[in-house]
Amino acid sequence: MFGEAGASSGYTAQDFSGFSGFSGFDFSDIFSDLMDDDDNIFSRFMHTTKQRKNAQDLDIVQNVTIDFETSVKGGKQKINVYKDVPCPECDGTGSKDKHKRTCPVCNGRGRVVTGRKTPFGTFSVESVCQRCKGEGTIIDTPCSACKGKGYVNSLKILTVDIPQGINTNDVINIKGEGNERGSYKGDLFLRITVTPHVFYKRKGLDLYCEVPFCYSDFILGTSIKLNRFGDTIKLKIPENTVPGTVFRVKNKGIYDSRSRTTGSLYVKAFVAVPEDVSSTYKKAIKNISELDEEYIKPEIRKNYKDFILD
Fold it and tell me: Cα–Cα distance between 159 and 77 in angstroms, integer?
């Protein structure tokens, strides 16, 4: 941000060329001394921000797959999470004797202040202590279990609440279940993938399915019961229903616990054509075909004579 602000204001390295009193002197040397890669003149202002970022750096993002029914009804699911936790051998100290001593260079601050002379005077620059790497403490004998890090990677089994209506690419945030380093705890982010269902499909909060019916069901009408993950739904097919008709059942879709709204269930009715039929069935169909020839086909020919030819 500082760089962008300087560029937008026109403060570039070339702007210093007007100072003729320092002929042959490279001003970039001054600022390169004051602004190293890790330690610069702004470090004292950024120190608190970096501390806040420490917790974010400990976050874990993990992919989790759940079945379709769980996404609709909600439920609980166990997941395995590998995370950094305080080393049990050294109680998170990183030291074999569980003791850390104050860094003699920075006196426990983790940062040191040095003076640098420039043509403009002496600047005080704060930087990370190289002796303790900013920790403020040092270890004489590192713990063999964690190699002096103070943490080890360990498996934790969590039981996670899956809310109703969750969908693929939704994220569940579990506070404090990320990696642990000292007093910092990251968060665990679970990116959800829902497996497809063999019968139901989902669009938003609506459920869709296709149900096969006999041809006679469309003519005479019928009724069926659908199993919606344990919820029985009755659906009536009126007589003379056209194949391909889609029926809507309100409030039988997916309930979203966040918006507290429920979608609809859409049922498409189609004709089930048998692959192998008996001679008796064929004979009955032939009788129907003769009736079709007498009552239905003349109307078809009349209404579609310009498009359907004899």
Answer: 6
